[in-house]
Amino acid sequence: MALNIGDKIPVNLGTDQNGNQLKASDFAGKKLALYFYPKDNTSGCTAQACSLRDGYDELLDAGYAVVGVSVDSAASHQKFIEKFSLPFPLITDADKRLVETFGVWKEKSLAGRKYMGTVRTTFLVDEKGIITHIIEGRNVDTKNHAEQILGI
């Protein structure tokens, strides 16, 4: 199952790096940039997180909350947040429930080897919890992701 434009996001999103349960209702009345990324502390994922950090005030001014999701552990997320001073929560999706619900857990290929992993994807969600835009895979501009979101 994959979520598409026009679909409502799930009620329960998951648990962040501090063990807090995040729900769709936490973002009612705000737009949400919910971004899925492959792995903490990798080059593309770090560039993307830092772009969102650097553009965070502008995203807030535009009415967005920002939440990241990967299958990394809470401890990994805590170190990633601390190392790069990230001002937004990161959901730990170790059971892959959220990546599978959103349809971003897919077969990937690297050097001819096939494996399952998270396809970098950002879901833009309106104030009512409805997906309005999806930026997927190579269409995600990791170095300028905040500006990319603001330009939509």
Report what the structure shows.
This protein is an alpha+beta fold and 152 residues long. It has a single domain, classed as 3-Layer(aba) Sandwich (Glutaredoxin), CATH 3.40.30.10. The strands form two sheets. The protein has a seven-stranded mixed sheet with strand order 2-1-5-4-3-8-9. Strands 6-7 form a two-stranded antiparallel ribbon.
Summary tags:
single chain, alpha+beta, Glutaredoxin, two-stranded antiparallel sheet, 9 strands, globular
Oligomer status: single chain
Largest sheet: 7 strands, mixed
| Neighbour order of strands in the largest sheet | 2-1-5-4-3-8-9
CATH structural fold name: Glutaredoxin
Decide which structural class fits the backbone: alpha+beta
The CATH homologous superfamily: Glutaredoxin
What would you report as the Rg, rounded to the nearest angstrom? 14 Å
Which strand-content bin applies to the residues? 25-35%
The helix tally amounts to 5
Q: Span from first to last CA?
A: 26 Å
Domain count: the total is 1
The average pLDDT is 97
User: In percent, how helical is the residue content?
Assistant: 25-40%
> Spans of 5+ residues with little confidence (pLDDT < 50)?
none
H and E string: EEEHHEHEHEEEEH
Supply the CATH architecture. Answer: 3-Layer(aba) Sandwich
Q: In total, how many beta strands? A: 9
For this structure, what is the CATH class?
Alpha Beta
Shape: globular
